[in-house]
TrEMBL record, chain A:
<feature type="transmembrane region" description="Helical">
    <location>
        <begin position="538"/>
        <end position="559"/>
    </location>
</feature>
<dbReference type="InterPro" id="IPR002591">
    <property type="entry name" value="Phosphodiest/P_Trfase"/>
</dbReference>
<feature type="transmembrane region" description="Helical">
    <location>
        <begin position="507"/>
        <end position="526"/>
    </location>
</feature>
<feature type="region of interest" description="Disordered">
    <location>
        <begin position="966"/>
        <end position="990"/>
    </location>
</feature>
<keyword id="KW-1133">Transmembrane helix</keyword>
<feature type="domain" description="GPI ethanolamine phosphate transferase 2 C-terminal">
    <location>
        <begin position="887"/>
        <end position="1056"/>
    </location>
</feature>
<feature type="compositionally biased region" description="Basic and acidic residues">
    <location>
        <begin position="978"/>
        <end position="990"/>
    </location>
</feature>
<comment type="similarity">
    <text>Belongs to the PIGG/PIGN/PIGO family. PIGO subfamily.</text>
</comment>
<feature type="transmembrane region" description="Helical">
    <location>
        <begin position="830"/>
        <end position="849"/>
    </location>
</feature>
TrEMBL record, chain B:
<keyword id="KW-0337">GPI-anchor biosynthesis</keyword>
<dbReference type="GO" id="GO:0006506">
    <property type="term" value="P:GPI anchor biosynthetic process"/>
</dbReference>
<comment type="pathway">
    <text>Glycolipid biosynthesis; glycosylphosphatidylinositol-anchor biosynthesis.</text>
</comment>
<protein>
    <submittedName>
        <fullName>Phosphatidylinositol glycan anchor biosynthesis class F</fullName>
    </submittedName>
</protein>
<feature type="transmembrane region" description="Helical">
    <location>
        <begin position="101"/>
        <end position="124"/>
    </location>
</feature>
<feature type="transmembrane region" description="Helical">
    <location>
        <begin position="130"/>
        <end position="150"/>
    </location>
</feature>
<keyword id="KW-0472">Membrane</keyword>
<feature type="transmembrane region" description="Helical">
    <location>
        <begin position="202"/>
        <end position="227"/>
    </location>
</feature>
<keyword id="KW-0812">Transmembrane</keyword>
Length: 1131, 237
């Protein structure tokens, strides 16, 4: 019951955090209202006559069409400079040769030879620069908001008015070939369509070759009015390699040739548009808003002359969505209802007309139509949603009515309106740009109430964690008061919600969840306040030692600085190292490192020793240095944040596949396999050391045989993955099949291992022996006869005890003959063995999701946490009867290490750093984004969170493990007098983790406390993120740094809290299994009709030394069963 | 630390107190001299060297500061002699002692360098800068230790543990050393910020932090000892 209540309470606290996060998110990550209104051909956008042949009928809706046909070529991630020629940085020098520069030679020739027919623009895409958002923008002319960013690979149909819908409703035949995303966006509107899967970014050829095969025949067939193609090769090349890879040159040359072929086939009434939907960073990724990502190429070409003037030296920069109204009017379509783009005015000039006035008039009329449409949209939108700024709206409306009046004046009196014309065009442009700026500003408007509410809820929950974890350390702690307020609050909130729902108030799930959370939190806090305020001073609420509090505050403050978030990969290890040095220094300061003789003043001689040093100086210093070294080495695996100005990511993070040199590749492969072997060997060594490897239980057998098999599978997978391109063609199918099956096999093995572990978690070796259990009682670590006084001091009590027991044994034997002894080994490390096994089993599939060389980081991770646990254990005293405590610095160091590992495994809290390739591990044909892909990518991103959260119980267990080590160390040397004097009390075998079992109540309390403390440290981080994002919501970098950090931190928190609950549940499962194991043991002994004595051993190493010892009765039910059990100390 | 004082020990205690007051005065003067030497190292070189400034010719200043602080420490040690001079005073003993001190100093420089690298300082680039930072930190911490305690590592360890201090001098040494460490640690905090100031470059902010920490320790320790003089009882007195 206690165990379940611990888990329930932790789950409830996690729910409180989730509710806070959700409430904040709903106020912070903004959404835009999507209007479903459509522009129609017959209905003009505003009052006044339609200009220039607009007749309100298909073909000439608002304006007469200039082109009856359109070829739109979208080349995914065609960055602006990809379409530029090679240039020399300084004139006179040879041009810079980069794989992506100057490969579109045909475009350049067109631009130079036909300046009035072709034009290149630098199109500025609005962030987020993900393909689906860009396609939405390119067809609707609006601004997709941040919230949509997450749905890039699971896109749904566009409900807003858009170009494609307009085309099909005016009866144009739209033919599409390319990226499948279009099918999701515009289902069923194409007259002919050829879709290719877009998600497999490793495939550079399938999509492009497929399009190429059908492109020219379709063009020649004349069964189309609008032909849209979407090529993916360039984008995939960026994702797979980067723009500097020779493959990029090949792709761009191919695209250039394709355009050449298209131009040859163009007819006079056809417009060709070549555009990139976004750019890419120097590492080939996109999604953010850096300069390189947002600049896309836009190329227009018409066989007829289109532009009145020759292009400027430097291509003009225009917003990407300008293409939407421009295309709409050029094709004689109505502009999509929600468009806020501004037409490219120069294409509406009348080339044939020699008079510049008419040209300008044509431009003005196009702009006026555009402005009317935007004004209509604004009117409708502001009637629907109130999120536009009212003042700005009024200003813009005034501006529009003035411009509109001017325009009407111009139309009525064409003579002498030169001056008016000069003012109308800028006015209209000013209006359109103003609207766009206002929309950008307003669709980033926050709901402050929800943000504040979310932050307050998070803060209150953090406070709750602090409070309850403090309670759980007190000896008089009991669970009753925890659950009552929770249950009553939750039920009250439910009733409230039901009432509200029945009265018909509309509430979204976020608010409902938050209300439930507050409802259950309030009575709890009230009760806590009432009981606390009277009893204890408030000062004891801050139980953390000063330095740890200071470090935590520094970490908290770091979330408010963009620089600190960007460089967190360096800041977290800095704090971690500081904490470690502080720990070592504190151990020294408290005199636990050196023998007191050395610290006391020699002249004074004897001084009251503050207890013998638990750990030798060299031990602790060695641990510290090892940790520092590990952290520093792991720091070599560093990925740059996209905002860091001068920075190069570590080449170690790239997969081995991209290494060109065969020799280096082999060497690295060897190193990776070495790391794998070392990881396996160290885990086995650890288990061996504590004796758990001797157990015949299935999980241990799995560790002995299954783990190496998993390692083998991983190594084989790496070999295939890194050398797949070099495989001979006839083996290709085999290789690709194997590289799909191997990860699945490893994951399956890991899953079965975990199942086994859950089924039989007790890894104990039981030996039933009839005979004298007391052979051990004389514990002689020396080989010879006693030589010194110390030896005698030690041995004599032993002999005395031996004789005593001998007598007692004889007495007992007279009572009942045939005493059966059951010796159980490794009980002392039974909990941590299960946790370590679970961690290892988890680590393998996670490792597969990363690049090969990350295995070194995983090795370092295990090593590092091992060292840290040892170092932490050095400072924790073992309080036998409980209550047990997990110190704050331990929990904080653990959380810091989780953060550090997040970075060293090649992650950064930005969207462009998400390692999408993880979605293809063990997946054969990924047609599109599924939940499995999301799961794989999530597991890759939050691997460190998972591992550290599941491993969290080790913080509680490890000091008990180290008890064994400490006592052994003390026993080995004969020692000096002082030690000999204390030895008789210490001689008792260490009971290690069985101490926890002896006090089940305190054990549960300690687990609760551990969970709450970890949640508190994580919660403080998320609270800091939330506060930073709300305070700095108008900061320049809020969408580049703070918002992604918040999202990653929130996701990480959710993953961590789930992992934590699972880890604690695992420990509880082991505990339950140990209980039933004891019960069973007793039952079998009873059935055998013998009075038995149970001998268990805590020390795993005793498995080698064969020193079983009497275990204390581990629970009261054993005593009741009439079995004779012995405490070591009482025997 | 409440040591039961018998009546007889009372007069000893008053004697101690007067002794302590003179000691505190001495301590204050020596610390003022140390601070003065640091200030001099900032202003004097500009008369001799062209274009001298702390930020631009940082390494030069570091060397000068280090040398002047070392010199003042040595002179003060020879003049004040805070600890009982050793019984042996043969030349060879003094020479070996001096050489040992030099080795200790160098070792501590390398030790600090390694710590900085482990903390995240670049391994190969800017090695000279990192090392000079190690030198200045050694000047502020190791040199006073060497002066006061000699090349006796165990004594050093004793000072930095609870209840290990045996005199005012050691107490002040403890305070200045810890504040130097805290200073250099705090000095690392502005480095990631994107303010683009010249003093944010490695290792300027850290050296400045260490210097400020040292000076703060020099100022604080006499005051702290003065305020707590009633509570402080040293076990060897």
């Amino acid at each position: 019951m206690q165990k379940i209540s611990v888990l329930l309470f932790l789950a409830w606290v996690s729910f409180l955090f989730y509710a806070g996060i959700a409430l904040f998110t709903s106020g912070f990550l903004l959404t835009r209202w999507e209007l479903t209104n459509h522009s129609s051909c017959q209905e003009p956008p505003g009052p006044g006559a339609l200009p220039w042949g607009g007749r309100g009928e298909p073909g000439a809706c608002w304006m007469a069409s200039r082109f009856s046909r359109l070829v739109l070529v979208v080349i995914d991630a065609l960055r602006f400079d990809f379409a530029q020629p090679q240039r020399s940085p300084v004139s006179g020098e040879p041009p810079v040769s980069l794989p992506f520069l100057g490969k579109m030679g045909f475009l350049q020739r067109l631009l130079e030879s036909q300046p009035h027919h072709a034009r290149l623009y630098q199109a500025k895409a609005d962030p987020p620069t993900t393909t689906m958002q860009r396609l939405k923008a390119l067809t609707t002319g609006s601004l997709p908001t941040f919230v949509d960013a997450g749905s890039n690979f699971a896109s749904s149909a566009i409900v807003e008015d858009n170009l494609i819908k307009q085309l099909s409703s005016t009866g144009r035949r739209v033919v599409f070939m390319g990226d499948e995303t279009w099918n999701d966006l515009f289902p069923g509107v194409f007259s002919q369509a050829l879709f290719f899967p877009s998600f497999n970014v490793r495939d550079l050829e399938t999509v492009d070759n497929g399009i190429m095969k059908h492109l020219y025949p379709t063009m020649d067939s004349d069964e189309w009015d609008v032909l849209i193609t979407h090529f993916l090769g360039v984008d995939h090349c960026g994702h797979k390699h980067d723009p500097y890879h020779p493959e990029m040159a090949k792709k761009l040359t191919q695209m250039d040739k394709m355009i050449q072929g298209l131009v040859k086939r163009l007819k006079n009434d056809t417009l060709l548009v070549v555009t990139g939907d976004h750019g890419m960073t120097i590492s080939g990724n996109h999604g953010g808003e850096s300069e390189l990502e947002t600049s896309a190429a836009l190329f227009l070409y018409s066989p007829r002359a289109l532009f009145p003037s020759a292009p400027a030296e430097e291509p003009e920069i225009i917003p990407q969505i300008s293409l939407v109204p421009t295309l709409a009017l050029l094709l004689g379509l109505p502009i999509p209802f929600g468009n806020i783009g501004e037409v490219i005015a120069e294409v509406f000039s009348e080339i044939e007309d020699s008079q510049p006035r008419f040209s300008a008039l044509a431009q003005a009329s196009a702009l006026h139509l555009n402005a009317q449409q935007v004004s209509r949209f604004l009117h409708t939108y502001s009637a629907t949603a109130q999120d536009l700024q009212v003042q700005e709206l009024h200003r813009l409306q005034k501006l529009f009515s003035k411009a509109s009046a001017d325009y009407q004046r111009l139309l009525q009196s064409p003579q002498g309106a030169e001056a008016v014309l000069q003012t109308v065009i800028p006015e209209l442009q000013q209006f359109l740009r103003g609207v766009r700026a206002m929309c950008i500003e307003s669709w980033a408007r926050f709901s402050l109430v929800r943000m504040a509410g979310g932050a307050a809820l998070l803060a209150a929950t953090c406070f709750l964690c602090l409070l309850v974890s403090q309670w759980a350390t007190s000896p008089a702690f009991y669970f009753g008061p925890l659950l009552k307020p929770t249950a009553s609050g939750l039920s009250g909130a439910m009733v409230c919600a039901g009432l509200l729902a029945s009265t018909g108030l509309k509430l979204d799930s976020m608010v409902l969840g938050a209300m439930a959370a507050v409802g259950s939190l309030l009575p709890f806090l009230w009760k806590a306040w009432a009981s606390w305020g009277s009893k204890r001073p408030l000062a004891s609420l801050l139980p953390m030692p000063g330095p740890v509090l200071l470090l935590l505050l520094i970490r908290f403050a770091g979330f408010f600085s963009d620089s600190y978030i960007i460089t967190e990969a360096r800041v977290a290890p800095f704090l971690l190292i500081s904490l470690i040095l502080l720990l070592v220094a504190r151990l020294h300061w408290e005199g636990k490192l050196l023998p007191p003789k050395l610290l006391s003043i020699p002249r004074l001689g004897f001084l009251t020793p503050a207890g013998p040093p638990q750990y030798s100086a060299m031990h602790a210093v060695g641990l510290g240095v090892g940790l520092l070294l590990c952290i520093r080495l792991a720091g070599l695996f560093y990925r740059c944040h996209e905002e860091t100005p001068v920075c190069s990511s570590s080449p170690l993070l790239s997969p081995l596949r991209s290494t060109v040199d065969g020799r280096t590749k082999n060497l690295w492969y060897g190193a990776c396999v070495g790391a794998l072997v070392a990881l396996l060997a160290s885990v086995r060594l650890w288990l061996h050391c504590y004796g758990n490897l001797k157990s015949p239980e299935p999980p241990v057998l799995f560790v002995r045989w299954g783990l190496p098999l998993m390692g083998l599978g991983t190594a084989a997978y790496w070999a295939l993955a890194s050398g797949a391109d070099e495989a001979p063609p006839r083996l290709r199918a085999l290789v690709s099949g194997a590289s799909v099956m191997l990860p699945r096999a490893v994951a399956g093995l890991a899953a079965s291992g975990l199942m086994l572990l859950l089924w039989r978690p007790v890894t104990v070796l039981v030996k039933a022996t009839t005979g004298a259990p007391r052979t051990r009682t004389v514990l002689t670590p020396f080989s010879g006869p006693p030589t010194s006084q110390a030896d005698l001091d030690y041995v004599v009590p032993q002999i005395y005890r031996h004789i005593q027991e001998e007598f007692r044994g004889r007495l007992e034997r007279t009572k009942s003959q045939g005493l059966l002894t059951v010796a159980a080994y490794q009980l002392g490390s039974v909990y941590s063995a299960a946790v370590v096994m679970a961690l290892t089993l988890l680590a393998f599939p996670l490792l597969l999701l990363h690049a090969e060389r990350i295995s070194l980081v995983f090795l370092l991770l295990f090593l590092q946490s091992f060292l840290l646990l040892h170092l932490l254990a050095a400072g924790i005293p073992i309080t036998t009867p409980g209550p047990f405590t997990v110190p704050w610095h331990a929990v904080f160091a653990w959380a810091l290490m989780a953060t550090q590992t997040f970075y060293t495994t090649g992650h950064q809290p930005v969207f462009s750093a998400i390692q999408w390739h993880a979605a293809f591990v063990g997946v054969s044909e990924s047609r599109d984004f599924t939940w499995l892909s999301a799961f794989l990518v999530g597991a890759n991103t939050f691997a460190s969170h998972i591992l550290f959260a599941v491993g969290c119980p080790l913080l509680l267990l490890w000091p008990f493990l180290c008890e064994n080590q400490g006592s052994q160390k003390r026993r080995q040397p004969p020692g000096n007098e002082a030690e000999a004097r204390v030895r008789p009390e210490e001689e008792q075998e260490p009971r290690m983790e069985m101490r926890l079992r002896d006090a089940p109540h305190h054990f549960s309390a300690a687990l609760l406390q551990l969970g709450l403390k970890y949640l508190f440290v994580l919660g403080i981080q998320i609270l800091a993120c939330v506060l930073a994002a709300s305070i700095l919501r108008r900061h320049l970098l809020v969408w580049k740094v703070f918002a992604p950090k918040f999202i990653f931190e929130a996701m990480g928190f959710i993953v961590s809290s789930v992992g934590l609950c699972l880890g604690i549940a695992l420990v509880m499962r082991v505990d339950g299994a140990v209980s039933s194991w004891f019960r069973q043991l007793v039952l079998t002994q009873q059935k055998a009709g013998e009075q038995s004595s149970l001998v268990c051993t805590g020390a795993g190493s005793s498995a080698r030394k064969a020193q079983p010892h009497l275990l204390p009765p581990c629970s009261q039910d054993l005593l009741a069963s009439g079995t004779s059990l012995f405490y070591n100390s009482r025997s | 630390m409440d040591w039961p004082l018998s009546d007889t020990s009372f007069c000893i205690a008053t004697q101690e107190n007067t002794m302590k007051d003179t000691d505190i005065k001495k301590l204050l003067y020596t610390h003022l001299l140390c601070i003065f030497s640091i200030i001099l190292s900032i202003f004097i070189p500009s008369f001799f060297l062209e274009n001298f400034s702390i930020l631009e010719t940082h390494l030069t200043w570091l060397c000068i500061c280090s040398v002047s602080v070392t010199a003042v420490n040595l002179v003060l040690y020879l003049v004040v002699k805070p600890n009982v001079s050793s019984k042996r005073s043969s030349l060879s003993y003094k020479v070996t002692r001096f050489l040992k001190c030099c080795i200790y100093f160098l070792t501590s420089c390398f030790f600090f360098h390694v710590i900085f690298v482990l903390y995240g300082a670049p391994l190969i680039e800017l090695a000279l800068e990192t090392f000079s930072l190690a030198v200045i930190l050694s000047t502020f911490t190791t040199i006073p230790c060497l002066c006061l305690l000699g090349p006796n590592f165990k004594a050093w360890l004793r000072i930095f543990s609870r209840n290990g201090v045996t005199s005012i001098w050691e107490n002040s040494l403890q305070i200045t050393t810890i504040s130097s460490f805290v200073g250099i640690w705090l000095g690392a905090f502005p480095i990631p910020l994107d303010w683009g100031r010249p003093w944010q470059e490695w290792p300027i902010s850290c050296t400045l932090g260490a210097t400020f920490g040292y000076v703060a320790g020099l100022v604080i320790s006499p005051l702290w000892i003065y305020w707590n003089r009633k509570k402080l009882t040293y076990k060897n007195n």
